[in-house]
Amino acid sequence: MKLYNTYTNTVEEFNTIEENKVTMYVCGPTVYDYPHLGHARCYITWDMVYRYLKYKGYDVKYCRNITDVDDKILKKAKAENSTAEVISRRYYEIFAESMKSLNVLKPDVEPFATKTLGEMIAIVKDLINNDYAYEVDGDVYFRVKKYKDYGMLSKQSIDDLVAGARVETSDKKEDLLDFALWKKDEEFGYPSPWGKGRPGWHIECSAMSRKHLGKTIDIHAGGADLIFPHHENEIAQSECANGCKFVNYWLHNGFVTINKEKMSKSLKNFVTIGDMLADYDANTIRLFILTNHYRMPVEFSSEALEGAKSGWKRIQNAVNEAVKYTNGIDLPNVSDSEEVKLFKEAMDNDLNTSKALAVIFDTATKANKAKAENDKQLASRYTAILLELTNVMGFNIEKDKLSEEELQSKLDTIISDMDFLAADDKQLKGHDLMNKVIEYRNDARKEKNWAVADKIRTLLDSIGIVLKDSKENTIWEEK
């Protein structure tokens, strides 16, 4: 397997620190606002990598942090006359629900910055003791020029950085490029050896990565916008505190753009994940993102999304038709198939998802052809391949929903036994009738009329329809 390492600007053979084990860190969100399509691009991308590494047999430990202490969070809290804890918790829950809706797996570890303050303070102490950092009136800064490899990740020299400095200025700093490890904050800060304060953004990731993955890790990933200064600063402070290499492979995903401009909150040109999911399903959004190579920008447009919607429908229909056609046939092991081999070759070549998806589309065509030629054995083979590869890419294959006519046909066989229905209700058709049946059952359950509730479930079960109850509602699906 080969990956493009941003640090070396080359595609390199992927060799892990420990055999068959991967440590992977991804910079998570700062939870102060609604997540947008740029976040979806980032976390779907690394979710795909996480899934593929596990598919290849690696024991992966994936850590993605949550930044819940930050200037932006405090600004929001002040504007709403609230607290940082309330704001960060609210938007974390929105973020978590968005990731779940996009079928993004939870990482193995999801640490919060505010729960890792002790580790951050320990690293800052190490840097001060090693003379890489200094304290001035409650603030602590990192001495950038003392770290000889500063700028290697972003390919910038110290002179270039000084000329185009995008860093905070302060009279307390020894040098313009020095960055904050700890910030004095008497109002909202936490206790530390330097007085009440808050961690700098960069030190958070160094501390959480070291705590959960170790001093040297295999993969560190995130958006390309984090290369400088965030990841550059992470490298400097981690290597100077730990005395060893921080990361072996740096991976970065490209931006989502609108009219060639990066989608971001600061430019107010973003589309929230919630708004996207109101118009498109999660599989369509994932296909829209993975059709493009992860390092390339993705241009947001309704045309591109509609194309992804049609593409996903083609895959979904092929899978559903093949599953129905091969019902009752044990699916074969396809790990050695030519299609899986081609899929792996594409993914092993710096995660070439566009070529990997081409294999899936080609397999969908083959499955349709096998069905048309009435070859159930061949159709079952392509069905197994489709189910395996779409799962690796993180797509969620849903069962075909019954059409109005199909549902009505099933309900007709039990309508005579539905003596609990009013005469007018029996005139309803298809989905309307189904909703009314569920309504009767829910009323029966509220009234503790278990005889009627159980009868409804049994009748529906006899026609292959299962009910699923939750706190909010009851849904039905075909077995």
Question: Care to describe what's here?
Answer:
The chain is α/β, with parallel strands linked by helices and 479 residues long. It contains 16 helices and 15 strands. A four-stranded parallel beta sheet has the order 4-3-9-10, sandwiched between helices. The chain has a four-stranded antiparallel beta sheet with strand order 5-6-7-8. It is globular and about 85 Å long.
Topology readout:
Layout: E1 2-5, E2 10-13, E3 21-26, H1 37-55, E4 59-64, H2 71-79, H3 84-101, H4 117-129, E5 133-136, E6 139-142, H5 158-163, E7 179-184, E8 197-199, H6 201-213, E9 217-223, H7 227-242, E10 247-253, E11 256-258, E12 261-262, H8 273-279, H9 282-290, E13 298-299, H10 302-325, H11 338-348, H12 353-372, H13 376-392, H14 404-412, H15 430-446, H16 450-462, E14 465-469, E15 474-478
Main traits of this protein?
single chain; 479 residues; alpha/beta; Rossmann fold; Four Helix Bundle (Hemerythrin (Met), subunit A); 3 domains; four-stranded antiparallel beta sheet; 15 strands; globular
